[in-house]
Amino acid sequence: MSSLGKSEAMASKLASTSDGARAANSESARHRRTASRAASIAGDLRGRGRRRRSTETLDSGSFALARTDGAVADAASLLASRIRAHMAAGHLDVTLTDNRYTMLSVRRDGECNESRTGPQYRVRLHHMFADATPRVTQALAHYIGKDDKEASKVLGDFIDANQHRVRAKSSRKTSKLVTKGACHDLQDIFDGLNDQYFDGTIDATITWGQKCGKAQRRNSIKMGSYSIEDRSIRIHRSLDKAYVPRFFVEWIVYHEMLHQVHDAPVVNGRRQFHSKAFLEDEAAFEHYALARLWERDHLEQLLTY
Ligand SMILES: [Zn+2]
Fold first, then answer.
1. Which of 21, 54, 131, 212 has the most CB atoms around it within 10 Å of its CB?
2. Is 5 exposed, middle or buried (0-12, 13-18, 19+ CB in 10 A)?
């Protein structure tokens, strides 16, 4: 569990002014610029995966073939060569995933400085594509290379027809997940961040917390929390307000997602949930400075819920 409050804000502020943090920041800023392009390309195919609260049983059969790393790598390079056969130019790198929400994402590198080898495409595909028909692999090529509308439709239909191959959620608490709020869609925010910062590797559920009662001034607010056992993120309902900008909700969600990536080392007998490495990663958020500033300027409003 974690909470974001004033004390945490101070800790991050300190971390972000150290030299190490700044170096990490610019490195990831470069990475991010490429990644955000990828996010927009994959936009219309994102969220085609299994919807939350699925009650279907685990379909282990379809993924059994690709269980070992070697088999996955073979299947990926085979698929890459089948896609490349339909492409005019460029270097293609395919990774197969078992993601539940992102079926396809494309990262295009080297678009700004056209190198002699042409653009580089780094593609992450759900393993359902491993044995796709030539029609689908051709559509993949057109989608990757030209962002082709028609190809996008073929792929969308293929993904829809292969829903049964998307891994069902394992036995987690069956409490109802509410992702669409009145002002902010948490699933959309989560998926965008997952693409942009984590290569789609974060596997967690997300939900708004309970509805707030009559608003009153409080001393603290736990804006987000992450449960390691359930792999679930919960965001305070009071952030689902028109005055709260999307980048701020994104920042809170991003923070909770980082908890899945970072260990919590024990320091002086206490578990440190926000290690130095964690805070450095946190500072790499695109709107980090803006979010901190916004939080400071709206603390009174945030504490009234
Ligand atoms: Zn935290």
1. 21
2. middle
Mean of pLDDT values over 19-36: 36
At residue 143's C-alpha, the angle toward residues 202 and 127, to 5°, is 45
Residue 107 falls within a domain, yes or no? yes
Q: How many angstroms is it from 258 CA to the middle of ligand 1? A: 8
Query: Which residue bears the tokens 């036995």?
Result: 171
Å from CA of 122 to ligand 1 middle: 31
Strand partners, 122: 93, 107
**What's the 83 CA to ligand 1 centre distance in angstroms?**
41
| Residue 174 near residue 52, CB atoms below 8 Å | no
Distance 103 CA to ligand 1 centre (A): 28
Provide the CATH number for the domain around residue 206: 3.30.2010.10
pLDDT value of residue 140: 96
Could you tell me if 260 and 40 are in contact, meaning their C-beta atoms sit under 8 angstroms apart?
no
For ligand 1, a single-atom ion, which residues have Cβ within 5 Å?
A: 2
Q: Which of 285, 208, 202, 216 is nearest to 241 (CA)?
A: 208
Structure token digits, residue 175 = 């409490």
Which of 146, 165, 184 is the last residue in one of the domains? 165
Q: 234-243: per-residue pLDDT in tens?
A: 999 999 999 9
Model's pTM, two decimal places? 0.47
Q: Are 165 and 183 in contact (CB under 8 A)?
A: no
Q: Kind and range of the H or E element at 123?
A: strand 120-126
Write down the residue that tokens 């998307």 correspond to.
166
Inside any domain, residue 41: no
Bridge partners, residue 92, by sequence: 121
* End-of-domain residue from the set 138, 165, 192: 165
